[in-house]
Design a protein that fits this description.
By secondary structure, the protein is α/β, with parallel strands linked by helices. It is built from seven helices and six strands, in the order E-H-E-H-E-H-E-H-H-E-H-E-H.
Length: 193
């Protein structure tokens, strides 16, 4: 089965600004929105733990940023559902699950790119969020992890998450994630685009 390329329920953005930790904060997004109204903006990845237990307002944004997606990091379906519900109540236009970050810190928290190795858990996470919100729930992922980078691996991952998790849109970072042996900065040399 071939993955769908476009869902009629989701808007088709020509381009978007990737979520970047320590860069796409609300001030950066406000500036980017001044440059274009035709792009979907993403927050930095915010973990479920930060939203649930943190003291800061990790869901803050300016109304001028719309359309804006909250990128969540986590792997607990109930916590992700709770955070998605909070984000929808705050007015976010989309929830995006990070299944692409390869950093050791993120892997130790059991989220990011390491989740590609457990498509069923990703499907459960997406389904839990979709069950409690009416806004789109999307997944940002890589083309593979370590030595699991075949087209068949990516298709199996997408088919599981789209079928059982009911995810309608995937944002593909068209590089694989090295989960062992390389830092994210080193992957640029090891895996040229």
């Amino acid at each position: 089965m071939q993955p769908e390329t476009q869902s009629s329920a989701l808007p088709a953005y020509r381009f978007s600004i990737a979520p970047m930790l320590d860069w796409t904060d609300r001030h950066c997004r406000y500036f980017l929105r001044l440059l274009s109204r035709q792009t979907l903006l993403y927050t930095e990845m915010v973990t479920t733990g930060a939203i649930i237990h943190g003291k800061g307002d990790y869901l803050a944004y300016s109304e001028e940023e719309h359309p804006v997606a909250l990128q969540l990091g986590g792997s607990d379906p109930a916590q992700l559902a709770h955070c998605a519900k909070l984000a929808e109540a705050r007015g976010y236009d989309e929830i995006n699950l990070n299944v692409g970050c390869p950093s050791d810190r993120v892997q130790n928290g059991m989220f990011g790119a390491c989740l590609m190795g457990n498509a069923q858990l990703v499907a459960d996470c997406v389904k839990a969020m979709r069950d409690v919100v009416s806004i789109p729930v999307t997944v940002k992922t890589r083309i593979g992890i370590d030595d699991q980078d075949s087209y068949a691996f990516l298709c199996d991952f997408i088919n599981t998450v789209s079928g059982q998790g009911e995810c309608e849109m995937f944002i593909i970072h068209a590089r694989k994630a090295w989960l062992s042996g390389l830092s994210p900065a080193d992957t640029t040399d090891a895996d040229p685009v």
